[in-house]
Design goal:
Order of helices and strands: HHH
Radius of gyration: 31 Å
Number of helices: 3
Number of domains: 1
Distance between the termini: 92 Å
Helix content: over 70%
Length: 118
């Protein structure tokens, strides 16, 4: 009878530390994976916000370049093209403003504080 009790005592003394170690390792791995997932998602949001800002800035720059060329007499825009250009320009500025306001939680503050476009 004593040998059976010794067996269970040794068995429990071997299993308990292994169970504690595996539980601790599982918790650490889960925590690290969750943190890495959160960081990865955060970077994806930053990339998306910066991409939208660059897209909108490119649209605004394109319209400003055409208007500048027209004012210098380098090109002539008819009324239809000028109206479409104004519409795209205004939409891009509105989207840019919205992106900067909502992206303030994602992008660097220095990008949000940049001077507004004309």
């Amino acid at each position: 009878m004593g040998s059976v009790s010794d067996f269970w005592q040794k068995f429990i003394l071997a299993i308990v530390p292994a169970a504690i170690a595996s539980g601790t390792l599982f918790y650490a791995a889960r925590t690290i994976a969750a943190r890495q997932h959160h960081t990865s998602k955060w970077w994806e949001l930053k990339v998306e916000a910066y991409s939208r800002i660059i897209e909108q800035l490119a649209s605004v720059k394109y319209s400003l370049d055409l208007w500048l060329k027209e004012s210098w007499g380098m090109t002539r825009l008819d009324d239809t093209i000028s109206a479409e250009l104004r519409q795209k320009h205004d939409r891009a500025k509105a989207e840019l403003t919205q992106t900067l306001h909502t992206g303030a939680f994602i992008i660097d503050q220095s990008a949000v504080d940049a001077p507004p476009t004309p």
